[in-house]
Each structure stands twice: as C-alpha cells, then as structure tokens.
Amino acid sequence: MLVGNDNKVECFQLCLNVAVQFQGRIFTVDLHVLPLCEVDIILGVQWLKSLGPVLTDYNLTMKFIHEAKLIELKGNSNMTLMATSPPKLRRLLQTRSVSEFFLIRVFSEASSPPTTHPTILTIIDQF
C-alpha cells in the first residue's frame, strides 16, 4: 500500500465496514491494518473521497454533507509540540514509521543563529 509520503507499507489485513465514532458522528470505513506506531487510526484519501466535496479551513475545521446533514469537524487546536527522545526516535526509524525529520529553531533578534559548517550547507543545498 502506498502511504502519504510515497513509501510502500505492507498490508496483510483489511477490516471492512468498521463503525468509527468521533465528535459525536458515526462513519463506516474500511480499515487497512498497517504496522504503524503512535496512531490509532488514519482516515486517508479513500475516506476523504467518500465524503464528496469538502470545505477545509486550515484553522483546523472541515465541513461536508454526510447523510443529508451538514457536518463540521474541528481539529484539536490545543495540541502542543513535544520534543522526542533518542529511544523514541530510534523506534520510529526501526519501524519505518517516519521518513522525514525537521528541526525548527527559533532565534530572537537579539541572538544570532550559530554558524553552520560549509559542508553541512552544501548537503542542505543538495537535498
């Protein structure tokens, strides 16, 4: 099965017509059992396509018609980013649960960012 980051993940089980409830609504979905960690369920493109037209607001809301009713789903805006630990990061790599990592640093105007070695800059430019 091809997943969102263009990686292939082996899928050996399919659960058909599973009732899933969130935000007080029940949806019937087909679930592919994938070897992922840290998530309970991923509602992917197949589910989104089944909804028909969807109005998405990147303030974490989406609206669509389901069973002749206007449904509005709201994302969790209270989520905070947490630093990961080396063992957890190692586990994600070993289970191939992630394919990209990003490091974001915030610098105040009073402090200047550390200088980066020229070799590292070359690698960053290449990739």
Number of strands: 5
Q: What low-confidence regions span 5 or more consecutive residues with pLDDT below 50? A: none
Form type: extended
Helix content: 10-25%
Rg, Cα atoms, Å: 20 Å
Q: What structural category arises from helix and sheet content?
A: alpha+beta
User: Order of strands in the sheet with the most strands?
Assistant: 3-4-5
Mean pLDDT: 80
State the end-to-end CA separation. 26 Å
Beta fraction? 25-35%
**Can you summarize the main beta sheet?**
3 strands, antiparallel
Count of helices? 3
What series of H and E elements makes up the topology? EEHEEEHH
How many domains, in number, for the residues?
1
Based on the model shown, name its key terms:
127 residues; alpha+beta; two-stranded antiparallel sheet; 20% helix
What is shown here, in short?
This protein is of the alpha+beta class and 127 residues long. It has helices at residues 45-51, 86-94, 118-126, and strands at 13-22, 25-33, 55-57, 61-66, 69-74. The chain is extended and about 60 Å long.
